Amino acid sequence: MNTSLLMLWGYWDEIYQRCTRLTYIEKGNNIFRVVVLRYRGEPLVTTDNCIIHDGDLILKLHIHNYYFATLCKGVKDELRVALLLRRHILQSLPKLATFLDSMENKDQIKGIVGTTMLHKGITPLGFSISDVPMTWFFRYKRWYLRLMLRIVHPNGKRRLQSWNYEMPLKRVYMSKEFLLNRYADGKQPLGESY
């Protein structure tokens, strides 16, 4: 990625972070940013059969795209980018669990929910996946995530052209209990070490 473009993105990211009230889990060392809000949508059934209902309090999960872009700077291989993303998600989940466990209102939070196109291979990490309704908001979000993919991914332009325009934007989610039981205190899933 062009260094000046990355620098401009860094300025924009600071503005975006302040406008959206996103909280860093650990700035510069964690791929997630979060915000507490009420879930809006159809009921979500997690892998441990917890149901997140419309109106439940959730931790909305955001991948810190700018931070990930800085990690990918100079990486040209598509497989290396995918492995880098998976590794950083895996390293970030225990810190996310610790963050959630330390929140004053943790008892009211039902789970973590995010929206992404990068959902392949995350079910073994404990996430459930479902479709999102194609409202104007999710159409805009898909456009924005496509732009991010084009910028961050070493073959972003070609990758986008090879995928169908109706790129699969998905909701990914996990119950609070599952997150804490699996990842609290620095735990990692069996067979997942880097």
Describe it for me?
The protein is of the alpha+beta class and 194 residues long. The protein contains six helices and eight strands. The chain is globular. The chain starts with a helix and ends in an 11-residue tail after the last helix. The C terminus is likely disordered. InterPro entries: YkoP-like_dom (IPR054467). This is YkoP-like domain-containing protein. Pfam families: YkoP. It comes from Brevibacillus brevis (strain 47 / JCM 6285 / NBRC 100599).
List the helices and strands and how they pair.
Layout: H1 3-20, E1 23-24, E2 32-38, E3 44-45, E4 51-52, E5 57-63, H2 65-72, H3 78-101, E6 109-116, E7 128-131, H4 136-152, H5 156-162, E8 170-175, H6 176-183
Helix pairs in contact: 3-6, 4-5
Beta-strand share of residues: 15-25%
Shape: globular
Q: Count the helices. How many?
A: 6
pLDDT < 50 runs, ≥5 residues: 190-194
What is this structure, in a nutshell?
The protein is an alpha+beta fold and 194 residues long. It has helices at 3-20, 65-72, 78-101, 136-152, 156-162, 176-183, and strands spanning 23-24, 32-38, 44-45, 51-52, 57-63, 109-116, 128-131, 170-175. Helices cover 42% and strands 20% of the residues.
